[in-house]
Amino acid sequence: MASTTEFSNPLRKYKLVFLGEQSVGKTSLITRFMYDTFDNTYQATIGIDFLSKTMYLSERTVRLQLWDTAGQERFRSLIPSYIRDSSVAVVVYDTTNHASFINTTKWIQDVRAERGNDVIIVLVGNKTDLSEKREVTVDQGEAKAKENNVMFIETSAKAGHNVKTLFRRIAQALPGANSNQVDGTSKEQMEKVDLHNSESTEATGCAC
Q1: Tens digits of per-residue pLDDT, 113-157?
Q2: pTM (whole model) above 0.85
Q3: Domain extent for 160
Q4: Which of 7, 69, 107, 138 is the most exposed place for a label (fewest CB within 10 A)?
Q5: PROSITE patterns this protein is in (predicted)?
């Protein structure tokens, strides 16, 4: 007879916390994933927003709880409590803002301080549709991800590029959250996701 755990695993809930400086596109990534829309009008997130979505994969179904955190300094004291029980931390920077990229180091350190290695961390370079304003190269993003032993991918919430791929890869990596071996494999797969083609495919929209 199958155990209760075996029945509950396919619908297990996983908490994803989105971190990063103000206006890097955290809310836009979530909105694109949830509703496949993009709002050109910027509105800063106040405190913490929460959304939930079920993902149906070929081998399992998972429930993702998406926690959108504010990037402003005055809300920083709230964030550690949300990181504490997370399965995934998505650290976002703006590829047209080098300072936001530099500051991802602190966000990653904050996650490690709260969760150690019991968490999947994804470094996301957003706004690749603004290629003419790019200040952070793909190579720089890859290098920082390898240095910190985290996943890496570039996206455009506006164009829809790689957003579905980002969440699909996260969902596929979830069983490895407590296994270094499986998690390591997932990281290798993530680093190979359509990175070098991001600029050339951007004009066509979603490359997922």
Answers
A1: 999 989 999 999 999 999 999 999 999 999 999 999 999 999 999
A2: no
A3: 10-204
A4: 7
A5: RAB, RAS, RHO
